[in-house]
Design goal:
- The protein is α+β, with helices and mostly antiparallel strands.
- Among the domains are: 47-147, Immunoglobulins (Immunoglobulin-like); 152-243, Sandwich (Immunoglobulin-like).
- It has three helices and 19 strands.
- Strands 2-10-9-4-5-6 form a six-stranded mixed sheet, with no helix packed on it.
- Strand 14 and strand 15 form a beta hairpin.
- It is elongated, with a radius of gyration of 35 Å.
- It comes from Drosophila albomicans.
- InterPro entries: Ig-like_dom, Ig-like_dom_sf, Ig-like_fold, Ig_sub, Ig_sub2, Ig_V-set, Zig-8.
- One of its GO terms (cellular component) is neuron projection membrane.
- This is Hemicentin-2.
């Protein structure tokens, strides 16, 4: 492409020289500049790639990322500006704010400039501008929305499952924004799916914003921290202990004793109160 541009320039220069020979001796330089500018396409100037998502939804406490893609940037600089107070947050990869939650990210030789906001707070919601230092400057607005949404596993924080039985966990995210919510399960740090091993089923209803994890015939190796992760929501976790039959019986017995003790103490306290109560006066009937 550049070769074609140079050839076109040479053609124009040749035409200009011919014109000079047959008419005036000195053609103004601005005429040549005008001709050259007419053949340089607009794509050669910095411009935005509008294919990036400009409405970002982030759950409270999560990390938000705004992606700005600038084509043909050349030697210009990209800045991120917070619109509500016109604060310049970043220029290039440098950060110009005391709030360390704001970070600039850029990969060399790429067109993408990312504003990263760690641990999003409600005050972070609003409009942010990606600005290019052309003359005049060009900018593109991004809207950050902060929502309070949390995935919830419908179970106790700690579960004791007998070896050989099934794990059945249900996760919901009713406040997740949008009509559909993608939900995933993790054991410790590894993704759990139907292909992890035999006997695992993950059934998710994106429109209902629910997901069900079933692991059949659990083994001791299935013990661990299980996490439900939903789009634009904080995750939730439970810890699953896989125990043997004898341990299960012992724990059930211990739990029964714990439940009986409060009732026994309550009975003793009631008897003590009755014993300490003063006797009622007796009325003689004459």
């Amino acid at each position: 492409m550049l070769l074609e541009y140079f050839m076109a320039m040479l053609v124009i220069m040749g035409l200009t020289t011919t014109f000079d020979k047959h008419s005036t001796r000195h053609m103004p330089h601005f005429a040549l500049a005008t001709e050259l500018s007419n053949i340089i396409p607009e794509d050669f100037e910095p411009h935005f790639d509008n294919s990036t998502d400009r409405e970002i939804i982030a759950a409270l406490g999560t990390t938000a990322r705004m992606h700005c893609r600038v084509r043909s940037l050349g030697d210009r600089a990209v800045s991120w500006i917070r619109q509500r107070d016109l604060h310049i947050l970043t220029i290039g990869i440098m950060t110009y704010t005391n709030d360390q939650r704001f970070l600039a990210r850029h990969i060399d030789n790429s067109d993408e400039w990312v504003l990263k906001v760690v641990s999003v707070q409600p005050r972070d919601a609003g409009i942010y501008e990606c600005q290019v230092s052309t003359e005049p400057k060009i900018s593109l607005a991004y809207k950050l929305m902060v929502v309070t949404s949390r995935a919830q596993i419908l179970a106790n924080r700690e579960l004791f499952i007998q070896s050989g039985s099934d794990i059945n966990l249900t996760c919901i995210a009713p406040q997740a924004p949008g009509p559909y919510t993608h939900m995933l399960w993790y054991k410790d740090t590894e993704l759990v799916s139907d292909s992890t091993r035999g006997g695992i089923r993950v059934i998710s209803e994106q429109q209902m914003k629910t997901s069900n994890l079933v692991i059949s015939r659990v083994l001791h190796t299935d013990s661990g921290n299980y996490t439900c992760s939903a789009d634009n929501s904080n995750s939730d976790s439970v810890f699953v202990h896989i125990i043997k039959s004898e341990q299960h019986a012992a724990m059930q017995h211990e739990l029964g004793v714990r439940l009986e003790l409060p009732s026994l103490w309550l009975l003793l306290l009631l008897l003590a109160v009755i014993h300490m109560a003063p006797p009622r006066p007796q009325h003689l009937v004459v």
